[in-house]
């Protein structure tokens, strides 16, 4: 249900994520054995849009257990830093880095709230600030997020965001063809669904979550207001999970509407850059 932002939103969300870390580690969804053996956790469109990261520094905000973060290191980033507010998630990410032979000089992880990132991460600015899918919905203040993220982009660097499209949160869950909720709502969404997207049947105790919907226009405007130049906004017709019953799984593992049926955007991505300093 929608409601004003409850005072315990951060504690409730952290307890939920802390509990789900071991479930995710053991799940087929994340398939850590395959990841350890070399499977890439990043999506093809992210790799194409971000481009070559060789020799660059990268900060991953809200990194969860670090698979995407470490995948960027595998693609040649000189140093990656992952930040998450869940200590169990960060501990898992550090263990994965050790298993992959990536020491702290190549892959470091810190526990902190994303809004506190500037004082928590080891460097003041990064060539690339990256935020992966399923992150913004956990944050109440998109303007503060944009200001925080933008402050960590080095001159000549950029922020890259890949996210689930908020339009999908307004559609009926079965067909994805009827609008049932307000796209522009600023209220918090409080849910108490047990389990997790990685294992819907997993027994869980900390089920209360507090989330927010951020229309794409607000996200773009917040980044521009924070001093970044919008390079592109791309909308994608696929999702990483079966958001609606009508979606079909394709060979690339993504879910799409059946051929011939009208589509809506299911994910989107943004690249926003900071101009290089004069003379460089």
Automatic annotation (TrEMBL):
InterPro entries: Methyltransf_25 (IPR041698), SAM-dependent_MTases_sf (IPR029063). One of its GO terms (biological process) is methylation. Keywords: Methyltransferase, Transferase. Residues 59-157 form the Methyltransferase domain. Coiled coil: none annotated. One of its GO terms (molecular function) is methyltransferase activity. CDD domains: AdoMet_MTases. SUPFAM superfamilies: S-adenosyl-L-methionine-dependent methyltransferases. Gene3D superfamilies: Vaccinia Virus protein VP39. This is SAM-dependent methyltransferase. It comes from Streptomyces violaceoruber. The lineage of its organism: Bacteria, Bacillati, Actinomycetota, Actinomycetes, Kitasatosporales.
